[in-house]
Write a structure and sequence with these properties.
The protein has about 120 residues and is α/β, with parallel strands linked by helices. The chain has helices at about 10-25, 35-45, 60-70, 85-95, 105-115; strands at about 1-5, 25-30, 50, 75-80, 100. Strands 2-1-3-4-5 form a 5-stranded parallel β-sheet, sandwiched between helices. It is globular. It starts with a strand and ends in an 8-residue tail after the last helix.
Amino acid sequence: MLKALVIDDEQPTLFMFNLFLNAYGYEVITAENAATGIELFKKERPSIVFTDIKMPGMDGLDVLKILKSIDPAVHVIVMTGHGDQDLMKQAMELNATAFINKPIGREILEQVLKKVGDNPFQKK
């Protein structure tokens, strides 16, 4: 089963991702902060990680750097509710797979899943 990790300090976002990603066949792991998310990543080794950019303590760019240093092939999707173009540029320079704005709808999520190749839409 495909694994996805979602790191966000907002419970509604974690809940929404859990529902959507479960429907697409993912085992979903959630973390309410960056430190917990990094530890779960080391333990569970999901192929895709969604991380909020603005969180108390460590931010999503730091999470991206650390995860890529552990596994350069991991797909990290950076999310923001702020639509900041400078942050998007920084995330993409750090090899984020995608940078998406919250709230995230089903269509955007499907586009990201197709992009990463963990593509539940092409399974037979």
